[in-house]
Structure formats: structure tokens, C-alpha cells
Amino acid sequence: MPNLDDFRSLLDCIHKEWNRAEGDIKQAEQVCSKVIEPAINELRYAGRRLIDAIGSANAEGDHRHVESLLTDALFDCHRARHDAVDAATSKIALDLDILRDKLGIDVVLQAFPSFPVLMGEVDSVREKIVASRKIRENRENIYTGIEAVDFPALVSSYNRFKASEPIMRELAKKRRWERVWTLAFGIIGIVGTIFTVVGWLFPRSP
Amino acid sequence: MFKKFFGWLSLADLDAARDEASVQIAARYARGNIFIQEGRVMHKDDLARLSAAADQAMGRLRDALRHQ
Q1: Residue A16 has pLDDT above 90, yes or no
Q2: CA–CA separation, A39 and A179 (whole Å)
């Protein structure tokens, strides 16, 4: 007869992983301003597996069956965390790309010199996510890699980046105005030169 | 043309690009009462679309940093 005490270490892992997944989901919601439904659903499935495992243990079910349900619950928690990290890092990558495209990489680097570090952190997570999609048989190991990511630290780096956005905007505005003045003075210079040359070639008769 | 020019000068093009990016990631509203995130929910296909767009964005960012 299976006893839930036999699965103490597995239950402990589920407890820790569920808490991590919940924390990551909250962070991802704040980054994306949306509820990340796939991650919530994975936690829902994990809850279902847990209830089934308790039911099976109480009904004196098979020891292996209870263990398999608990392992599935743990894996659902991993997947919930994976979806949350996927959503948040995707949103961060898009935001970084839009700012680079519209303001210019030089402006971004001037206002936030740690931009390459932040990009490296996002890139490393994204590479693992892309790899997890391609190598399905090695998915569990890759998930473990993603789980090692300090996601709250990544979100806090991104928040620091966002805090320097007003400086980026001011720098970009200044550069755009400089380009306008350079163009305006360039046109005035060219027109002036043309008039001078025309006046020199075709002098007015007295 | 003037509107575009003054939009560029005031960085309105940046905000427009951001709005466009969030429109691409469909903002659906949940059924029932969800108070968090004003009821906006990202479904599975939205997440897949967002993830694919992010992979392309990472490629562009890597190129930009390499050429810097």
C-alpha cells in the first residue's frame, strides 16, 4: 500500500518547483502585461496530477502509479516555468529590438552601457528555449538548464534598462534635431553656392 | 509626409512601433472575472507567435552588436 511519506523527496521537489513557477509567472505577467495562460494551465495540470496521486494513494493504488503521477506533476511545474520564462524573455527581446531599431544602437549603449550584458543574458535563455523545441528527446535536460536561469535577476536587469529609457529618448531626440539642422544648413549652403556660381557665370550687365 | 516627419522628430514612431508589436501579439480578454492584468490573456498560439518574433529579434540584435 503506497504511503505519501514514501514520496517525501518528490513532494518536496514539487513544492519548491511550484513556488518557483508561481514567482516566474507573476514576473512574466508584469513584463508582458498579460496573464500567461499556457503557464497557468500547466500548473492546473500539475494540481490535477497531485489530486490523482493523493486519490490513488488513499485508494491503496499501485506504488509506481502514484510515483508516475507525482513525476508528471513535477514535470508540469517545469513546463509552467518554461512558458513563463519563454513569454517574458520574448517580450524583452522584442522591446530591446524595437528600441535599437528606432533609437539606434549607439544611443542605447550610451544610456545603458550594460546593454550587451543584458542581451547576453536574454540570448542565453532564448538559445536554450530554441534548442528545447528542436531536440525533444533531450528536453528534460534543457529544461533543467532553463531552470538554472536566475529569472528574477534577468527581469531586474530589464527593469534597470527600462529606467534608463527616458535618457535614451532625450539622446535620440537631440540626435534627430542635429540631423535636421545639419540637413537644413547643408541645403542652405548648396543653394548659396549655386547662386554664387550662377552670379559669377552670368554677371548682371551694368 | 509632414505628420511622419514630426512623428520622427518627437519619437512618436517608437511608440507606434511598440503599439504595432503588441497588436501582433493578440490581446484577448478573458471570460468571466479576471482582475489581474485588466483581464488580458495571452493564449498558447499568441505565445508561439511572440516566441517566433523574439527569435527573429534576437538575430537582428546580435547583428547590430556585431557591427557596433
Answers
A1: yes
A2: 46
Complex-level ipTM? 0.81
CB contact under 8 A, A106 and B18: no
Which letter, b or e, does each residue of A40-55 get, where b requires 16 or more Cβ atoms within 10 Å of its Cβ? bbbbebbeebbebbee
Longest dimension (CA), chain B: 49
Output the pLDDT for position A142.
63
Structural domain includes residue A144: yes
Residue of A90, A165, A171 best to disrupt the B interface, most CBs of B under 10 A? A90
Distance from CA of A196 to the nearest CA of B (A): 31
| Nearest beta carbon to residue A98 from set B10, B21, B36 | B21
Mean pLDDT of chain A: 88
* Residue range of the domain that includes A98: 4-163
| Chain B residues within 8 A of A123 when measuring between CB atoms | 58, 61-62
- Note the pLDDT of residue A161: 93
> Are the C-beta atoms of residues B28 and B40 closer than 8 Å to each other?
yes
Domains: count for chain A:
1
Q: Which segments in chain B show pLDDT lower than 50?
A: none
How do residues A110-126 score in pLDDT, each as one tens digit? 999 999 999 998 988 88
